[in-house]
Amino acid sequence: MVTCVQCGCGFQPVTTGARYCSKDCRSAALRRRIRVTCRVCGTRFETVPSRLSSARGKYCSRECSGRGRRATTTAKCAACGRVFTPKKRRQRYCSLSCSAAAQRVRIERTCAHCGQPFQEIPARIRNGRGKFCSQTCKYAARMLQITNACDHCGKVFTRDPSKSSRYNNSFCSFKCYAEHGRKLKTCITCGKQFVTTRCKDRSFCSYGCMGRAKWDRENRQCEVCHKSFWVATGQAAKGYGRYCSFRCFLQSRGVTNIEAAVAAELERRNIKFEREVKISRYHLDFLLPQWDAVIECDGAFWHSSDQARERDARKDKYLTERGLIVFRLTSTQIEESLTDCIDRIVNMLES
After folding, report:
1. What is the pLDDT of residue 168?
2. Chosen CATH of 255-350 out of 3.40.50.150, 3.40.960.10, 3.30.990.10, 1.10.357.10
3. What average pLDDT does the structure give for the chain?
4. What's the whole-number mean pLDDT along residues 261-284?
5. How far is CA 5 from CA 25, 28, 35, 129, in A?
6. What are the sequence ranges of the domains in the chain?
């Protein structure tokens, strides 16, 4: 239920963000006026309540709005350092005298072509210019050519500095660049050998073989649970298809040091538990079936960031809503006082 802004009665909104229970209440709210005081000139004027949250409800006219916005904006003069109120956007100087003084300032530079020292104004340096002492040096630097030998055909070629990074500056043309990367590969599907380039590094000799690798299936045996499952031929040729599920993949990686310590402590106390149990899209480190409890082992590397904490909170909320009790043990707690942590968990579950 939502309360109407105009009449105060409760109603069930049809759309998200509805504020009025009917069109009449909305029209009445739009016709209603309140008297406020202009922040610049102090004149009392009427406005709609919905405009109070924006700048339109603070000033009586556009002139006062402009004066008010200029009054609240301050800048620091780039020449004298005095704080002033700018009259235009991106105004950098407080007066014409400061602007003229800034134009007279010169900075010592070295020409990128002839190496001679020269002076340049700061504005041209800020804009990325001021690299050459004259137009002659500027155009002469553009006309320079880089000479190199092609790594593929051995031909000596010249190139502009602006295009020096093209083809890694080691090939005279795109053809040599592509030919240099040619290599002989074996098709994953039919075993036929074909030539591929660095631009088109393919794994199949044709689209037909690519389609068969995508849709053909072969039977594999999981390396963990030894269950038979089907996997695409192309994926199997690339080294995938070793495990039947993500749970088996997690089990294949083995347990961490803190998980091994918790498992040893639970076995010493003869507490039955299950590892890597999947509930929906979450995998549980330890599930205690007799109490419907979960123990999560949080390593400092994977669970210390803000994003990891938010992810763990969503997981805890999901498990709690389904009647499970979640306990989280950090790596520090497990390494320093594992026995005390398990004692507290058992006492809480048995009480």
Report:
1. 60
2. 3.40.960.10
3. 81
4. 87
5. 8, 11, 19, 59
6. 1-26, 33-71, 75-104, 107-142, 146-180, 183-215, 217-243, 255-350
